[in-house]
Amino acid sequence: MVKKTGRPGYLQIADDLREQIRGGSLPPGAPLPSTAQLAEQYDASLSVVKMAVGLLRNEGLVIGQQGKGVFVRESDDTAESVQADEAGTAAAEDLAGEVVKLRTAVQDLSRRLSRIEERLSQRSGS
Asked: What number of CA atoms fall less than 13 Å from residue 83's CA on the CB side?
């Protein structure tokens, strides 16, 4: 049941499901109860339950299969997901560094071009 603690209900539900997954009562490959069952179990609306399950999906703990339900992701899948996230973060940092280098190079070239144009205008004006 969702408690009136000031913490959003979907976070409370996600915390509880996360504990069940990590504690082994919802093992890898096990289906989560349906959205309606979770809503009844936690005395919450369907939208609150959907937000909780969505959060677990984003964390890579569960995976949805169209028409079949939502299942606890296999532990190997979770490790791969974490590795992919870390690789994506590293790639984004590398890309950001490259953008900074390119921006600096463009600024330098713009200054140099400006000086050249200034010299050319002085020569043609003489």
From this structure: 6
